[in-house]
């Protein structure tokens, strides 16, 4: 088999998401050739490389970027390294798939997007949920006019368990590490821009989250340019599992995506009828979506088309997140133009 | 208020079903004037009459039939009195609403239908489930061709608790006291006649039912003239409540009616999602259908139209029941023409 | 039958809701004796009285209040007459069931509640949805701690069709004629008081509603004393029918009430599976709740207990409504203490 | 990477199922080393081998069996070759995974099982549906006593489109090519043996199927040793898609597995609520189950445990199938002991 037509890939970062990408690249993306993995934890990365037959490992991403076999780089390292690595990769002429958020600093994002633009490489941001079949169907229903003019949107997004407090301290806060997905989903489903944000919230799940300067329960109201009003509600802890639902209501009807149960079994007894829980967390729920976003990334490289999630798509929800934070702190609606 | 345009009604029998009819007549059928109630238990009937403002009570049904104010009679007494009272009522020129089954004796049924025919009065049999909105919608879907040619039908019919053993001993057995409703439902939904029956069953719920000569669990296969194959499954005891479902599969699709839950509430926790049980038993589930069958009865009197459930409809499922009994005993399919 | 133990009732107002109450009183509340109906439209009220055997009719509510047979009065007339009639009825020593809202004027409400208090009569406000079995079950789940500490609540409430523009002009606006039910539901489900309100909205359904000075689409965020954050979304026009759902999320799970379909029938064909719509509008959906609120009213009279929906319950959502209006106009969160 | 610990595998047959197994072996079974593929269509198999990096191809299965690298053989060729290849593979000391049915000839099955037994190799039959998560959960509920003593089981199994008439002519008929899966499912879920079978059926979908000597619509009643009564209904054409549902009713409750929709999206409009269809056919629906059965096969080789679907499990449903055929032809219940 001639592998020369394959796209050589390097992955930087081998945490939970990094490993998932590595698995998909090794097993399910025939057009990709996984050449090298980079991680600070060399022991760990060596074992992963062995498992998936990846020829090269390194703890220095510049080594990886210097490899001429590598045409595309997946950046799945810690958030505060995204910008540096993405910029270096772009400058090295590699296509970049960067996990969200690009950065917690808008200037750095803008700088990165400018470098990418100049380099003429593909730059896709890892908003995997857009590739979930149900959410994609909802977007299609909105975009095609099936539900008429959209008026109201509701997004529910609740995690099964809070992240470690150490993560909370550096994540940028709930709006930038968790709600950012929902801000992206909101823009994706409505196909329009947010103009104003109002956020309320509190510490209901764990006082330690409050001590770390964050909240764990929030409800955000978004107003779009086209008049749609959206609410997002988040909790760091839903005991029944990962709760990811959307609903868009419009002049001709409503479209909604529910949680998929892990099986289709129901039990009926004197207590009523019991159905299964949703998948535990994001890996279980969005594995097909994580795969699909990679497939789309390689397709846009091969077909020379724009990536389905652009740098601008990576920037916009960060802006909404800052507006939400400002709204929460000042207890007033905040225009995006204020950020 | 001028009541002379109302239809004077007498009710014979004031057991559970009789009382339900009395309540509906007193409260919800403005075109009926409830004139008299007859029951062997005069103390009981006096209290019911007081509750619903019924002017006359008697323990002798001939007294009731002699009342010129009474134009229509509801026969809700013990099964073995249906024929005698229905025949006398018809001979007295009264319209008759008779609970199912008309009789456990085909000759007596035929005799009754002949008398009714000769008297020119309305005769409606109490197959209340036909008036359930969901089942009526299923029938409409079949009759209108929405699902194309029907091929396969499934009926599930399970009671929450077995009847008293004393009742089991005189009821005619499960096919004639319980499945008879499903035989009627089968004919109603398909709009065609059964030609062959195969029944299997056993005693799984309570050995006492077996000692009384009956079974408590059965599965029956019906073949219709038009080629539809149907199965009915029955149990005397479903711990999760009254289970009444139908499904018709055809060349253009499938239509099904599920159990209605008693409320629309769901609970989600780490065990999954719990929804409500169905209504407890037939009164809770079919109260609107019991009312609707009476409304239809009075409408057919006023509008001089045929009753929606005819004497022939009352006879047919008894024949199917006898065929099922013969099939069970002889462990072979039995043609209806053998009965 | 001795009717002297029954509670004599007079109904003022015979519009859609008035007629529904009259029907329930006449047919389904055995402890009530419907003595008189009052309406400005004497021809209409005469026909209703005839239909339900109500002995007296009048177009002057003072005549009705002067009737010594009447112990309780149902006020179902136009909103701007609620206060005058309720006050007069209380002064006449009658128990009062008053439709919502008591008034659009807080001073008048307070005056009325003071008069009722002084008169020592029962005063119940017509928040019928509290008596819906599903919503009552949700409240029970919250109150009993089944879902732990409540954190987030979502209420969706959308009408199938907008009211006439003439009604919009005098109704007090969407917050006081429509959302008021949801404000009550919010207080009822959480069992706590709202402290801050933020409302956004617009005219999406019909420009005439905007010309009449109202909005037709709104999303409201409520913050409760106990920390619960709630959102309510309203639309004047949901083409799929009356949409009335609630969801409460807490530390131990989630409880939700969905729309009941009008039947349990599903169709499966190459387009997917189709299920039935919800009941058309409030009469179809809440008929059992309208009956149950009356039963509760007469029970509290007979058992000398406080009414389940008090005058204070009638006042509170009006305050929330004014806060919502102020929030919408000033585009900022408004404390209830500002009203 | 040291592949010497991997199990060398050869696949015989590269039709639809064969290709699916090849894909799974190449991508998702790290403990397997796919060494060779055998197919009569060498051009086709060469392209598949190239796609999945399989080093060897052949059109002669004896070549494959002679390969010392190969420890396990997957037999996915035409049904009438299963016995010859399985026997030869077992004699060559290879573990065998054989697609269903082993054969349409009971003597050949018995001969094969004897040879396998003597050879001491693993022999697993491809009843993939046992590995569906929902059906496995139903079986667990039955086996663990969650629903008490099982009484009644219903299996619905309908294909989206009929197979080609050429296939119908050689498949052994609906009972042996289609219902055989349901006979296996019935045994699997109940964990007991069928003693009597009654089958009815007809040609409702396509007269050509009748001309080929088969039926396309059937309902079968099974009686188990332990008293459970089961019905299976089959159609060759369900326009709404692949319909695969089971329900087991017992003394303590009911457990059921529904069809999974392809997404969780619902649309609500004036026609009602629409949900998604089930996956199109067996590959779409059972892909994870096809993978899981292979994983179980390699696990039983590595762990030296019995295969989860044994040769006896492969034989039993063939016997039930013959009994069903006899029942249909003779229109009477047939004991399995008659076969």
Topology:
Four copies of one chain form a homotetramer.
Chain A: E1 7-12, H1 16-27, E2 32-38, H2 42-51, E3 56-58, H3 61-65, E4 72-75, H4 82-91, E5 95-98, H5 106-119, E6 123-125, H6 133-143, E7 150-158, H7 165-170, H8 174-177, H9 179-190, E8 194-202, H10 207-211, E9 217-224, E10 229-235, E11 243-250, E12 253-257, E13 265-269, E14 272-275, H11 282-302, H12 311-330, E15 334-335
Parallel strand pairs in A: 1-2, 1-4, 2-3, 4-5, 5-6, 7-10
Antiparallel strand pairs in A: 7-11, 8-9, 8-15, 9-10, 11-12, 13-14
Helix pairs in contact in A: 1-11, 4-5, 5-12, 6-9, 9-12
Brief account:
The structure is a homotetramer of 339-residue chains. By secondary structure, chain A is an alpha/beta fold.
Overview of the structural elements:
The model of chain A has no long low-confidence stretch (mean pLDDT 96). In chain A, the strands form three sheets. In chain A, strands 12-11-7-10-9-8-15 form a seven-stranded mixed beta sheet. A six-stranded parallel beta sheet of chain A has the order 3-2-1-4-5-6, sandwiched between helices. Chain A has twelve helices and 15 strands. The longest helix of chain A is centred in the last third of the chain and has 21 residues, at 282-302. Chain A is an alpha/beta fold and 339 residues long. Helix content of chain A is 38%, strand content 25%. Strand 13 (265-269) of chain A pairs antiparallel with strand 12 of chain D.
